[in-house]
């Protein structure tokens, strides 16, 4: 007599389906190996739609890995090239492409999310996919035009962004700007697919691109730094962006997503309307960086590199804590705003600001006090001299005072943008950047590169104060009270 296997785990418990098993070529069933099961769980963790907490964790893990790889890349650049004119030329090329892509990337990344969230909630996934395809088509058209403009007018752009560069450094900057034209193309498309993934709460997928980009850049540095600084720096950055773009788009193509569609969708017009204030922000933020490097170009050779090295150290704790949280919180803010729950949005924004203040204000003090040993530990080896350490540490100390203002601006801005209010953050950012540029001109004469860092911190603090004042004026109707 054969006893039938029970299909229930006990009274009141649902029946359990048999576990799926793989089939080998001979037709025999085989239990998946632990490694294969682990890979499936890992892919599922990053690919599936995520809660806020899970999204913050996944973005945090990927950001930590990406920043660690990015710092290794910076260490290699410092080791091989120090604060030479070659690094100055590379940083100018980076700035030009950041400025160009920022105009469009910010529009997709910001205005696209609430529109895609709204489309998915009201009309379903199929309509949401169609809107994403229209965004991709628009991005392809703009990206192609931007890449051609940068390639054709590279010398003019270098002269605008670094007026005092001359000789070999100027020629190198021009060539590097042209070699890195794929960066603009890839980053503009990154805004479109990033908005789609974030609107669907698949927060981890677009972030995976960054460690891929940094890894490819490191490979190029190790292979070509001794033979060609141009190929090692500019070639590695371009190749990394192309590989990263393929990694992000491949899952969409496999799952049947279209990347080409007409531009007659009504949401495209609304997207363009919402993007107008964002263009101000997209111009102002890279303009802030470009202005700092332009003023640094009036100083002796190597000061642009010093400014960049200090900025990389400042961005690590700031970006890790704020980008992980603000990316997820932006989608949450869009969902709460769409539901009309303004009271809950205001409450959650306030709570998040308090938590960040608790962490980042003490961190600013530690960074100010420990700037020199931090720079010495991270950079001082190879071509990076003790004199470079002293200047970079002074710059980092003044950057560090802006940790909390930087974080607060990102969170409050996410709240406003979740409500489709793009004008208020644009006004605050524009005011802060204008103040920064004026103070750059004043402080760089007496303080050198550290003066640029101080001006940046003051400008960001002004932006935070303006946003806090506007945020405090939010009025919650009685029906919206928590």
Please supply descriptive tags for the structure shown above:
single chain; about 475 residues; mainly alpha; two-stranded antiparallel sheet; 2 strands; globular
The chain-level mean pLDDT equals 81
Number of helical stretches of at least 4 residues: 17
Q: Which class of secondary structure composition applies to the elements?
A: mainly alpha
SSE order, as H and E?
Answer: EEHHHHHHHHHHHHHHHHH
Cα distance spanning the termini: 64 Å
Helix content: over 70%
Low-confidence stretches: 1-30, 478-482
Can you tell me the overall shape? Answer: globular
Tally of strands: 2
Order the strands across the largest sheet as they lie in space.
Answer: 1-2
Query: Rounded to an integer, what's the Rg over CA atoms?
Result: 24 Å
Give the strand content: under 5%
Number of domain units: 1
Q: How is the main sheet built? A: 2 strands, antiparallel
Write the layout of secondary structure elements.
Blueprint: E1 22-23, E2 29-30, H1 34-47, H2 52-81, H3 85-123, H4 125-152, H5 154-161, H6 167-179, H7 181-199, H8 204-224, H9 229-254, H10 266-296, H11 303-338, H12 342-369, H13 371-379, H14 386-400, H15 403-418, H16 423-447, H17 449-471
Helix pairs in contact: 2-8, 2-11, 3-4, 3-6, 3-7, 3-10, 3-11, 4-7, 5-6, 6-9, 7-8, 7-9, 8-9, 10-16, 10-17, 11-12, 11-14, 11-15, 11-17, 12-14, 12-15, 13-14, 14-17, 15-17, 16-17
């Amino acid at each position: 007599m054969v006893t039938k296997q029970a299909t229930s785990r006990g009274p009141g418990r649902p029946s359990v389906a048999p576990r799926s098993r793989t089939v080998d070529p001979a037709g025999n069933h085989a239990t998946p190996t632990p490694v294969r099961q682990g890979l499936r769980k890992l892919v599922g963790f990053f690919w599936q739609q995520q809660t806020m907490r899970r999204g913050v964790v996944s973005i945090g893990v990927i950001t930590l890995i990406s920043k660690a790889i990015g710092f290794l890349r910076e260490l290699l650049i410092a080791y091989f090239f120090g604060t030479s004119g070659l690094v100055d030329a590379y940083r100018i090329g980076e700035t030009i492409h950041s400025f160009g892509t920022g105009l469009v990337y910010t529009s997709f990344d910001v205005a696209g999310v609430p529109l895609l969230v709204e489309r998915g909630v009201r009309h379903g996934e199929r309509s949401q996919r169609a809107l994403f395809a229209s965004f991709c088509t628009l991005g392809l058209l703009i990206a192609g035009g931007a890449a051609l403009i940068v390639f054709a007018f590279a010398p003019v752009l270098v002269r605008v962004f670094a007026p005092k560069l001359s000789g070999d450094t100027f020629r190198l900057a021009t060539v590097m700007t042209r070699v890195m034209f794929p960066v603009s193309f890839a980053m503009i498309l990154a805004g479109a697919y990033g908005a789609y993934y974030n609107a669907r709460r698949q927060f981890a997928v677009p972030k995976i691109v960054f460690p891929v980009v940094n890894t490819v850049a490191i490979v190029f540095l190790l292979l070509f730094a001794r033979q060609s600084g141009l190929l090692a720096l500019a070639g590695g950055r371009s190749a990394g962006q192309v590989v990263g773009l393929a990694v992000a788009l491949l899952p969409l193509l496999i799952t049947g997503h279209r990347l080409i569609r007409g531009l007659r969708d009504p949401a495209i017009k609304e997207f363009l309307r919402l993007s107008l204030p964002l263009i101000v922000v997209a111009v102002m933020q890279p303009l802030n960086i470009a202005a700092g490097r332009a003023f640094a170009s009036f100083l002796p050779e190597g000061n642009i590199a010093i400014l960049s090295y200090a900025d990389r150290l400042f961005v690590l704790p700031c970006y890790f804590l704020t980008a992980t949280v603000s990316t997820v919180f932006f989608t949450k803010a869009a969902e709460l705003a769409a539901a009309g729950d303004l009271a809950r949005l205001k409450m959650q924004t306030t709570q998040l600001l308090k938590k960040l203040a608790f962490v980042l204000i003490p961190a600013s003090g530690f960074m100010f006090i420990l700037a020199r040993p931090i720079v010495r530990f991270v950079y001082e080896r190879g071509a990076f001299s003790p004199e470079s350490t002293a200047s970079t540490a002074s710059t980092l100390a003044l950057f560090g005072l802006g940790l909390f203002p930087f974080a607060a601006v990102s969170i409050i801005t996410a709240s406003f943008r979740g409500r489709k209010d793009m004008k208020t953050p644009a006004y605050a950012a524009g005011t802060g950047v204008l103040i920064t540029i004026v103070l750059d001109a004043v402080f760089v004469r007496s303080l050198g590169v550290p003066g640029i860092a101080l001006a940046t911190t003051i400008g960001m603090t002004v932006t935070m104060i303006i946003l806090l004042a506007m945020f405090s004026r939010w009025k919650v109707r009685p029906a919206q009270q928590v």
